[in-house]
Amino acid sequence: MQQFPCPFCGLRDEREFHFSGEAGNIRPDTTQPVSDADWRDYLYTHENPKGVSREIWVHTTCQEYFMMERDTVTMAVIGTQQMRRDTA
Amino acid sequence: MTRHFSAFGVFREGLRGHKGWAPMWRSPAPKLKYDVVIVGGGGHGLATAYYLAKNHGMSRIAVVEKGWLGGGNTGRNTTVIRSNYFYPESTALYDLSVRLYEGLSRDINYNVMFSQRGMMVLSHSESEMEIAARTVNAMKLNGADAELLDARDVQKKAPILNYRDDARYPIHGAIWQGRGGTGRHDAVAWGYARAADRLGVDIIQNCEVTGFLIEGGTCKGVETTQGVIRAGRVGVATAGHSSVLAQMGGYKLPLHSYALQAFVTEAIKPVMDTVAFSPMTGSYFSQSDKGGLVIGGGLDRIPSYAQRGNTPEQENVLSGIIDMAPALAKVKLLRHWAGIVDVSPDSSPLIGPSGTDGIFVNCGWGTGGFKAIPAGGYLFAHLLANGAHHEISRPFDLNRFGTGALIDEAAGSGIAH
Questions:
Q1: Most buried among B71, B95, B298, B365, by the most CB within 10 A?
Q2: What's the whole-model pTM score?
Q3: Alpha-carbon gap, residue B126 to B243, rounded angstroms
């Protein structure tokens, strides 16, 4: 069993976490017209990197979303970062 | 040149001390240029090369493989072959595959041991039985064989399953596809390799693609650990590593790579004549000719390229098997492994132009690539030879993510991949 570090709760069982997507995938600005290609890129296209990957995860037990950097080959966690601006 | 395989040949070699067998394919050095270079020497890549040579009369074809043939997912799956899908597009695709598998051993003169022992998807409640009836009707309308079994039929076909009144997931019936079954996965790779080699295809192992040769925005070949190989067209069939190749080739794919685990137990006496899958537990199993139970289940939940599984999913899958067949609780595992599968948003494959001129992709098969090898190769060969889709592969083009015409089998047939 792997443990992931929640920035708020510390090391916890991997089953408590959910992968929510790759970091840096910004939703198109819907106050402007959005092309099909832009929606496609936002909704479906992934970098899916082999090696270092920056991702958004949620710790389902505390419901906090955070950034996790990890290696998708070794599965080692490189670091985590909270996403709340007010506490940063 | 290898000989034609036959029962007489086996008998003759038996008398001659098996000294007459030759290597099944050559190991040529790469030439400077081919009409088509296929990246990935798994089932899909090798089948593509075979059908390019056989159906489209092409001869200057190379398959480049970074390791050994069938060393990726082709050699790591649970060998199930079926076409029990919901949407017409999917049935057209996967049933083409089942039909090609039915004639494959004869076609490539290599016994792939396709055993049409049938496949059942269990239903555990009255409402699941209604959905099962809908699936059976859809399959029949789409031209695949299907039958709705009640609990008594299921018990006749698979008496090892759990029929106790107090079962956590009681069996109400099942979706049955009698033409489904299992095959010998290594034989599929080796058989296609041998057949392709006999038609002049160069199979180059231990040759990793390190980049694409892009000239004026068009791909003109691949850079490999054995030098540059120029190509008219490049076909990429690299399953879990498709995104890695996409980054080299300057195109983007809607994929995530995950580990998918499989298990095989010690050999036991025959207890299971068919393949049983329980969508409720997410686990399925069959029994190999050697007697080992071959067990599979869902994906690990963490994107990964590690080719090894993690323990929570092991526990899920194995506890699901024990739920389905409590009598198997004390059977010991012999081996356990994982492959890296490329999962698309709608659980359907991607076949088509990559977005970079000259590069075509065949990927996104997720957890179900083995069953689709003959069709994947057949359709990808058509695409590479003509530069245009076969009718069956057209709906699986990458453009569906822009148009929104997804083929969502995860929602349609409830089969996770």
A1: B365
A2: 0.96
A3: 42
